[in-house]
Design brief:
The protein has one domain: Metal-dependent hydrolases (TIM Barrel, Alpha-Beta Barrel). It is built from ten helices and 21 strands. It has an eight-stranded parallel β-sheet. A seven-stranded mixed β-sheet has the order 3-2-1-4-19-20-21, with helices on one face. The radius of gyration is 20 Å and the shape is globular. The protein starts with a strand and ends with a strand. 49% of the residues are buried. It binds zinc ion (ZN). Zinc ion binds next to loops.
């Protein structure tokens, strides 16, 4: 039993000085103070960040064979420290055996009390994606295959039914039918690593696809200016894109256009981090290739001279969105909280409101809009600094 406790800060949306009262795991009340009561150097207060694509953290790869619940706890502590209170572990294109092995471990993660509900389910990105060069990105080419509902059901069984999101290329043989079945079974479908035509993308939406995975990435460098998968995904209001706003994966004008076209309520930021997030610069092995991470956290595959993954915490996306697009703090934070909760139907979090789960962060920002997390609370308990 956790006794009532309070947290105060500047509300990230309104700029008001507020005190949030927590009872057990929930927000019990929010009190707005008068301007006179406002103290100096008060941090901002917002809902905890929600990341729908996390492949690993601090050297722990959710996909590798030494992955365990204990290692996930270590990764979660590092994510909490970076202000992420909910994350969706993501497994990518791999052999059937290895995917089943790690979904089994993830099903234990889901039920782990220590994680306090930070993991609401899992994301399977691939293996049913484009085999065209440039579109499959750094996924293991030899393991990319046609959609198989039976195989997916085996993954789902291993995962305890908690695969809640899958990234699919709708144009591959059987892709549309697969999307339909996923939607009917309650799994969210995101279009990604795709070179689909407009017609197929619109059909995928008719069949239930609601998201676009890391729009602007997982796409060949050279595409037709009229016929390419970007225009229809931008044109379709029913698709909410995720964007990797780490400052490397998309240029300022791309992020600005995506944000303007979709609007502040219909786009989310994701980290898509590999396990190299939080690691020192250097040479590493990733997805069977040698990669180099530089001082800024940029990960390059030198043999192919392409970006080979992301390493920036989700909070970097808040800074990037503000600096690249000129959006407000409120808008930027909502892209990593309210909007993500909405698309994932996590109605208990992502918003500072009475009755919601007390997933809360306190943070400061410097003149370059760099975000520093001061405190992180998950379900009413302070998890950073650990109490
Ligand atoms: Zn991807």
């Amino acid at each position: 039993m956790i006794k009532n406790t309070t947290i105060s800060g500047i509300h990230y949306e309104t700029g008001e000085f507020v005190t949030v009262e927590i009872s057990d795991s929930l927000i019990k009340s929010i009190t707005i103070h008068t301007a006179q009561e406002k103290k100096e150097n008060v941090p901002f207060i917002s809902p905890g960040l929600i990341d729908n694509q996390t492949n690993g953290y601090v050297g722990i790869n959710f996909q590798d064979e030494i992955f365990t619940v204990e290692r996930m706890r270590t990764a979660a502590r590092a994510l909490w420290k970076d202000g992420v209170t909910t994350f969706i572990p993501t497994l990518v294109t791999e052999s059937k055996e290895n995917l089943i092995r790690n979904f089994r471990i993830l099903s234990q993660v889901y039920n782990d009390d220590y994680l306090r509900g930070s993991v609401p389910g899992f994301h399977l990105e691939g293996p049913y994606i484009s085999t065209e060069k440039g579109f499959y990105g750094c996924h293991l080419f030899k393991e990319i295959r046609k959609p198989s509902w039976d195989e997916f059901m085996e993954f789902q069984e291993a995962a305890g039914g908690k695969i809640i999101l899958t990234t699919v290329a709708p144009e591959v043989e059987g892709g549309l039918d697969f999307i339909k079945k996923c939607t009917e079974s309650g799994v969210l479908v995101s279009i990604g690593h795709t070179n689909a035509t407009a017609e197929i993308i619109y059909r995928a939406v008719d069949y239930g696809a609601t998201l676009s995975t890391h729009l602007g990435n997982g796409c060949a460098n050279t595409i037709n200016r009229h016929v390419n998968p970007l225009w229809p995904q931008l044109a379709c209001d029913k698709l909410t894109p995720s964007v990797i706003a780490d400052g490397f994966h998309l240029r300022p004008e791309e992020l600005t256009v995506f944000f303007k076209v979709k609007g502040e309520n219909n786009i989310i930021i994701t980290s898509d981090v590999t396990h190299l997030a939080g690691m020192p610069p250097g040479e590493y092995e990733y997805m069977g290739s040698k990669v180099i991470m530089n001082e800024e956290g940029l990960i390059l595959n030198p043999a192919l001279n392409v970006l080979a993954g992301a390493s920036m915490p989700l909070k970097k996306g808040i800074q990037t969105m503000i600096n690249f697009t000129g959006c407000s703090l409120k808008q930027a934070v909502n892209l990593a909280t309210k909007n993500v909760a909405r698309v994932h139907r996590l109605s208990d979090r992502g918003i500072l409101e009475t009755g919601k789960r007390a997933d809360i962060i306190l943070f400061t920002m410097d003149e370059k809009n760099h975000v520093t997390i001061k405190e992180t609370w998950v379900a009413g308990k302070r998890v950073y600094p650990e109490s």
